Amino acid sequence: QVQLVESGGGLVQAGGSLRLSCTASGILFSMYVMAWYRQAPGKQRELVGVITNIGSTNYADSVKGRFTISRDNAKNTVYLQMSSLETADTAVYYCNTAYKGVRYWGQGTQVTVSS
Question: Is 76 within 8 Å of 84 (Cβ atoms)?
């Protein structure tokens, strides 16, 4: 059974930083692409960025230069380091992977950026 568990969300002031973590179980973590998504109130879920099994990354234009995705395969964990946070970054953040054709999501972690 694949499980993804996010942590690290919270309340932060604009301009601040936060690091989210997502720990996976039930898959051979090192083999899989991992992604971070977010969903703001009243908006559709959007892709924040992805990291491949070999560590290549790609980001949405809205977070390029501010967010960094990394992974620690020994800990089955993917990270989202967020810096220079803006109020527009307020959302529930989810990690995601696809395993045997099925997409899996974590429960999400709330990030609130205050002005």
Answer: no
